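Feature request, filed as a ticket because there's no other form

It would be nice if the structure record came with a short human-readable summary line next to the tokens. Right now we just get the raw output. Example of a typical job, pasted below so the devs can see what we mean:
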Amino acid sequence: MMRFLVFTALLATALAVNYDGYKVFRVTPKDRLQLEKLVVLKSVLGNYVNFWKEPADVDRPVDMLVSPEYQDLVLGLVNGRDLDVEVTVDDLQTDIDEERAGTTATFSYTQFNTLDLIEGWMNDLAAQYSSIVSVVTVGSSYEGRDIKALKIGTNQFSNSKRSVWYEGGIHAREWISPATMIYMTKLLLDGYDSNDQDATTMIEELHTYILPVYNVDGYEFTWTSDRMWRKTRSPNSASTCVGTDPNRNWDYEWVAKVSKCSESYPGTHPWSEIEVETVTDYITNLNSVEAFIDFHAYGEMWMTPWGYTESLPTDYTVQKSVSDSAVSAMGNRSYKTGSIANVIYQAYGSSVDWTYGALGIVHSYAVELRGTSFVISPTQIDDSGIETYEALKYVSLYAIQNPSRK
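Raw output as currently delivered:
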């Protein structure tokens, strides 16, 4: 009853941040000159526009979230540079309202669930599959929440089994990421129940860690206050801007950034965020982690290290081959593969660079899931879960057959 009352209060409370009339403009540079124009435009508009996708390369879309008062200005500047504009989101608040419209107070695999519902589901799974599923606390948050993961596999207390680690929700607003993690878990356990050979092999040969919501404080904040929140919720000294990007706070090629208001602010130092410090401690102490995948949204990309440099890592050939095969397993999807810096943008202090560079986990990948916006219809959850499970299954089985950790 208490869970229902809390849920009802969440839905009844208007979010503190409203996005009525906000649009997303997409501009895709066709050549280097157009790309250079967009880079200049970003420097001009940086304080007025939220760049969901920054200018990075030719034929790579640039997405700008623009409030109503600046839309004429932005359109004038873009059109004045002979750039074509596509409106991919006509009214962001309408999309947000529709995203929540079918949400119920009980857990469902085909809706976006609150943190409370997700944790209840995790506990229910551990009770239902007590011999192969447990809930483990892998970290803690600034606001005092536990960060919880599912540990799936036989011989729960064995320290000799190899592991794979799959996480979602490190960026709070990317709701399709936790939802996909949850749906993939369902498919894995359904497969085990039906004696599917691949699912059985994964559960018998590996400990699969599934962390649906990494940034628990931020995710909760997207439900109560600001659907577009990305960072953690820790305060920043001498600034009214809150939060650090938890995917820029890992201790590998970390680089300071001046603006504490930036959505990619990396913190005062590596591991300044308790979420990052405690989860990395947990991963470090696991036995033989064969694969690490950090699931994000949006844009359909399957990426390898490095993020901090366009130079390719020593193991790029095998990483690219596994990426291509994982994407092929997904079916009719158009995922772009390659290194982070070459596919999306340069990113310092990322999770994938740390797991590969510091821990030597060869199969470390960052995945941007389906969709053209951070707000996506819940009708796409099952398809995202199904296709991504096929890719996850390929990586897990490859890791079993080709162990890279000693």
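Something like this underneath would help us a lot:
Residues 381-401 form the longest helix (21 residues).
The first strand starts at residue 23 and ends at 27.
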